[in-house]
Write a structure and sequence with these properties.
The protein is mostly helical. The protein contains 16 helices and two strands. A hairpin with a 2-residue loop joins β1 (68-70) and β2 (73-75). It comes from Nocardioides lianchengensis.
């Protein structure tokens, strides 16, 4: 028998929330070790070897000036990763909304999330086999893993609305992000130790990639077993097969979204400022290694700072949101993001102390802004349409976050430097701030038919 506390979750709901946190722990291994830290510079080195026959080493006077030839186009090896991320996010923009529509019609959300996770973890494990000059395999695996991760997160985010009441979501979402930073940080620390003791850096990186895939797969078992599947509710009537129904529901949602102008305004703002955030995540390791001249192990140590400061940052932002509201707290976080990007532009090469300070700044706002954005958006969704609306949210997070990465790729292609591209990111944060500032939170929650919490 479950007990009910008016100020807190029931025993059963609290147990499901604790199990739900573990998927943040599980997938953060991929997000941190592979997507944010190791794979981008590693794949860049593989591409440089394919183009020039050696990996660049500016200390020894070696610098790759040859391009890859892809579909008749000349592509700089240093730009390749950013173009791959751009392609994968554009594909995600088409795929993720359909995944969300399917999930809303499924009575097996948790199972669906786990299947996407295990497929993505398999692609991540296969990155171990990216060696020599075989950048094509690395590119294909990165696209596939990114799609699976985004699909699993569409369903995972939607489950938040099933296991947490509106007044609990800032807290639950922030704790999930904190768990993710802790899990990602622990694995990153283990991989840092591996890179420090193994002389063959490439082998150590490949083993680290393998470990992230295994970690992702193994810890997904906990939410798979601990969060129960629920019947679909409040479905939009559509004819035909499940896939046809899902496309019909998606079209209905895109038309229906015009009836929720506040929700639409938030999504537009989130599209811009999250594009800036995602670009910083993808570009930071390449920027640290290729622009500032740090070793892979040095950049990894800075990301350890991001991870563990991120735990405190996510929890701190959650506490501030309880008093000031998520809306105002996110706006404050965007101001800090702008300051961090400006400082990153002026960071001189080989200045590790300042690079470490920037890492701490990123950690402070990264988890907080993302966790509160997730819980804030959950208040603006009509009940029973969670997965479908969160698919649009994920499309903004992972499916349309391509402008920043495209800028980085093009700027490097034209200038042979990543530094000028940082200034362009400021515009993304400023535009996002403008739209978010215009969001009338209480009105948006009422329009969606939800209860307005005491603090928003």
């Amino acid at each position: 028998m479950t007990t009910t506390d008016p100020s807190g979750p029931t025993t059963e709901r609290a147990r499901e929330q604790r199990a739900w946190y573990w998927y943040d722990w599980a997938n953060s291994a991929y997000v941190t070790t592979i997507a944010a830290v190791l794979f981008a510079p590693y794949l860049t080195s593989v591409a440089e070897k394919a183009a020039c026959g050696f990996v660049t080493d500016e200390d020894k006077g070696l610098k790759c000036t040859d391009d890859l030839s892809i579909l008749g186009l000349d592509v700089s090896p240093g730009s390749l990763v950013f173009y791959i991320v751009t392609v994968s996010t554009l594909i995600s923009a088409v795929v993720l909304p359909v995944v969300g529509a399917i999930a809303d019609r499924s009575s097996q959300k948790t199972t669906l999330m786990a299947r996407f996770a295990w497929a993505g973890s398999l692609f991540a494990m296969c990155m171990f086999f990216v060696t020599g000059s075989n950048w094509q395999l690395g590119a294909a695996l990165l696209v596939a893993a990114t799609l699976c991760l985004g699909s699993s997160l569409v369903v995972y985010d939607a489950i938040l609305c099933d296991i947490a009441e509106p007044h609990e979501r800032d807290r639950v979402s922030s704790r999930g992000w904190a768990m993710g930073y802790l899990g990602g940080g622990i694995l990153l620390a283990l991989n840092f130790g591996l890179l420090s003791v193994v002389d063959d850096t490439a082998l150590a990186v490949r083993i680290s990639l393998l470990s992230a895939g295994i970690w992702w797969a193994a810890f997904t078992i906990i939410p798979f077993r601990g969060v129960r599947n629920r019947p679909a509710t409040n479905l939009v009537p559509e004819d035909g097969s499940l896939v046809r129904q899902s496309f019909g529901q998606l079209w209905h949602t895109l038309k229906d979204l015009r009836g929720y102008p506040v929700t639409l305004t938030f999504l537009i703002g989130y599209l811009f400022y999250n594009d800036g955030i995602q670009t910083v995540i993808y570009a930071a390791s390449v920027y640290g290694e290729k622009q500032l001249g740090f070793e892979a192990s040095t950049v990894l140590s800075a990301f350890l700072v991001v991870q563990f400061v991120g735990i405190a940052g996510a929890l701190l932002f959650g506490r501030i949101a309880q008093k000031r509201g998520a809306h105002a707290t996110i706006l404050g976080g965007l101001v800090i993001w702008i300051v961090v990007v400006v400082l990153g532009y002026f960071t001189p090469a080989d200045n590790f102390a300042l690079f470490l300070a920037l890492a701490a700044g990123i950690g402070l706002v990264l988890g907080g802004t993302q966790a509160l954005s997730r819980s804030f958006f959950s208040q603006l969704i009509p009940r029973g349409r969670e997965a479908e609306y969160f698919s649009l949210y994920q499309a903004c997070e992972r499916g349309t976050s391509w402008v920043g990465t495209l800028i980085f790729g093009l700027v490097h292609q034209w200038t042979d430097s990543y530094r000028p591209a940082l200034l362009a990111l400021i515009a993304l944060f400023v535009i996002g701030f403008f739209f978010l500032y215009r969001v009338d939170t209480a009105r948006g929650i009422r329009e969606a038919g939800n209860e307005v919490p005491a603090v928003v």
